[in-house]
Design brief:
Layout lengths: L2 H8 L3 H10 L6 E2 L5 E2 L2 H15 L4 H12 L5 H35 L9 H8 L5
Antiparallel strand pairs: 1-2
Helix pairs in contact: 3-4
C-alpha cells in the first residue's frame, strides 16, 4: 500500500510516517519503480505500535527502546516492565507539576475581581515572573 493508505490505516499522517522513517523507528519503505513508498502489513503493525506508545506518552527514545524489545524474541519482560515503571514515575512528576500550575492559576483567578477595574492579579503575577509579590 502507498503512504496515503498506510496513513489512513494507521491513524497517523503521512508526514508522521515519513518522520518515523527518518528517525529510524520505522525501517525505510520499499519503493515502487516510480519512487513511491510502499508499505506492508508488518509496517502497519509497527506503525500501530509506535502510535500506541506515543499515545501513552512515551518519548521517541523510549519508543525506540520498546520497539527493540518488541522485536527481540529473547527479551526479558523485566526490561519492558522497568521501562514502563520509569515512564510512570515521569508521568506522576508531570501530573504533580500540572496540578501545581492549576492550583496557582486557580488562586490567581479567585483573587481577580473580573470587573471593569484595570487591577488584575493574574497580569501582575505574569509580569513579576511569579516572584517578588
Amino acid at each position: 500500500m502507498n503512504i496515503g493508505q498506510a496513513a489512513k490505516n494507521s491513524g497517523l499522517s503521512a508526514k508522521m510516517i515519513r518522520y518515523y522513517e527518518s528517525t529510524g523507528l520505522l525501517k525505510p519503505a520499499h519503493r515502487s519503480d516510480s519512487g513511491y513508498r510502499l508499505y506492508a502489513s508488518e509496517d502497519l503493525h509497527t506503525l500501530a505500535f509506535i502510535k500506541r506508545s506515543r499515545d501513552l506518552g512515551f518519548s521517541l527514545e523510549e519508543v525506540g527502546k520498546l520497539l527493540a524489545l518488541w522485536q527481540d524474541r529473547q527479551r526479558a519482560s523485566a526490561d519492558v516492565k522497568a521501562l514502563a515503571r520509569q515512564h510512570i514515575v515521569e508521568l506522576n512528576q508531570k501530573i504533580d507539576e500540572l496540578a501545581s500550575l492549576r492550583d496557582t492559576l486557580q488562586e490567581l483567578v479567585e483573587h481577580c475581581h473580573g470587573d471593569d477595574r484595570p487591577d488584575c492579579p493574574i497580569l501582575k503575577d505574569l509580569a513579576s515572573g511569579g516572584c517578588c509579590g
